[in-house]
Amino acid sequence: MRWLLLALLVGGCGGGDADRAGRLRAAGPNADLTTLLAHADVDAGRRAFGQCAACHTIGKGRQALAGPNLHGILGRAVASDSRFGYTQALKDHGGRWDAARMDAWLAAPSRVVPGTRMAFTGVRDPMERADLIAYLQSESR
């Protein structure tokens, strides 16, 4: 009985996305980004951001690390944080960060901008990327 109680307590604590399967079902097969964002979970995105936190901060006014601070990233011009030294490739890429551009970037940064210094292979899971975008959006206010 104690093991069952312990399993229930651990299962209900931190890290998991218990509703992920339901969110994926609701989005449907081959869902596009708009649909995935409609079913995205900010808390799941916050947890997924843990892999980003090794190089990025997100709090307003926080210092850049190996990558720029990401507070307010959505809607901001690409390579526009004056406190961070971007590659020329990213500066030349131009444009603004919106959900579609962020989705492509999170999937494969070096494919989007060859020559970027971002040494991250990407997030393969489209729902996880949508969750991350929802979290970035929530932290951009």
Q: What is the mean predicted local confidence, pLDDT?
A: 87
Shape from CA axes? globular
Care to count the β-strands? 0
* Main beta-sheet annotation: none
CATH superfamily membership, which one?
Cytochrome c-like domain
Termini gap: 46 Å
CATH topology: Cytochrome Bc1 Complex, Chain D, domain 2
pLDDT < 50 stretches: 1-15
Class per helix and strand makeup: mainly alpha
The protein's oligomeric status is single chain
Architecture overview:
The structure is a single chain. The chain is an all-alpha fold and 141 residues long. Helices cover 45% and strands 0% of the residues. It is built from eight helices and no strands. It is globular and about 40 Å long. It starts with a helix and ends with a helix.
Explain the layout of strands and helices.
Blueprint: H1 2-11, H2 20-27, H3 33-38, H4 42-48, H5 88-93, H6 99-107, H7 109-112, H8 126-138
Give a short summary of the structure.
The protein is mostly helical. It contains 8 helices and no strands.
Task: Name its key features.
45% helix; mainly alpha; Cytochrome Bc1 Complex, Chain D, domain 2; 141 residues; 0% strand; 8 helices; globular
